[in-house]
Design goal:
about 270 residues; alpha/beta; Cobalt-precorrin-4 Transmethylase, domain 1; Rossmann fold; 3 domains; 9 helices; 12 strands; about 20% strand; metal ion binding; iron
Length: about 270
């Protein structure tokens, strides 16, 4: 069986930046998970004593607080600034962008239509910057029956699929007089998705590596599954099952934006032994 890595996979710019910040911030605490990868978080804890707090209320005598890649709410940021603590901002610039857009457009009277998962920390953070109504949706038909205003601004969670975002925009263009559209989907996400799509169309088994609570990793798995029925989402090499690869000719591998190279290499090494 041949093993082939997707042309684009793994750590994105924002995650690389956040990891570097954490490695240079020994004995700090992150507000929420720095990235959605528990194994990498464990490594930062073991090697740099960077611990993870659930939220700001868990802060005690810490001297340094790291804001996670997904950002935090505007209120939490204000509360953090009121404390006697060194704030280290590891928010991905691609997440900061929709925060700024939502704040500006809502101040100009636009209601916000947000393509994203309402329970995701990135979405919660961006929503907090709006002073007008925010409609968080995963499908355009969730807006059916809602009286939309004369003008809306549309943004997307950075890890969502462009095709679905376009469908939502098209729906709004047919119903709202003024629609301001901002492409806030991360380029790295698009590149990883396209590479996974290309490889999945040729492979007879696909392995997607990443945190199972990671939005972009789940999107990669969904893309792979649509093109290659035998697609599996794993967090580490320990989850690999030898029977998945019996009589297979090409095993494709992709990984989410929060998946470090050392985890990917362990998966490749174990596959090679099979």
């Amino acid at each position: 069986m041949k093993i082939e890595l997707a042309k684009s996979y793994g750590f994105c710019f924002g995650v690389k930046r956040a990891i570097k910040i954490a490695e240079n911030s020994k004995d700090a605490a992150t507000i929420g998970e720095l990235i959605h990868n528990s194994l990498e978080i464990d490594r930062l804890k073991a090697n740099f004593n960077v611990k993870t707090l659930k939220d700001i209320s868990d802060l005690k005598d810490e001297k340094k607080a790291i804001i996670r890649t997904h950002g935090i709410t505007k209120t939490d940021l204000a509360n953090l600034k009121s404390k006697n603590i060194d704030i280290i901002d590891a928010t991905c610039p691609f997440v900061t962008k929709p925060q700024q857009i939502v704040e500006k457009m809502s101040n100009e009277g636009y209601e916000i239509v947000f393509f994203g998962d309402i329970n995701h920390p990135e979405v919660k953070g961006v929503m907090s910057y709006s002073v007008t109504n925010v409609h968080v949706i995963l499908d355009e038909h969730e807006l059916d029956g809602i009286k939309l205003p004369a003008k809306v601004a549309v943004v997307s969670q950075t890890t969502k699929k462009l095709k679905k975002y376009s469908q939502i925009v098209d729906y709004l263009m047919q119903r709202v007089k003024e629609v301001r559209v901002f492409n806030t989907i991360c380029n790295a996400t698009l590149e990883n998705q396209e590479a996974a799509r290309e490889l999945s169309s040729r492979a007879d088994v696909m392995i997607i590596i990443g945190g199972k609570n990671s939005s972009n990793t789940k999107q990669l798995h969904l893309i792979a599954k649509n093109l290659c029925q035998d697609s599996h989402l794993i967090e580490s090499e320990d989850e690999l099952q030898k029977e998945w690869f019996e009589n297979k000719k090409l095993c494709g591998i992709s990984a989410g934006a929060s998946t470090p190279d050392w985890i990917i290499q362990k998966v490749v090494d174990k596959l090679s032994k099979f």
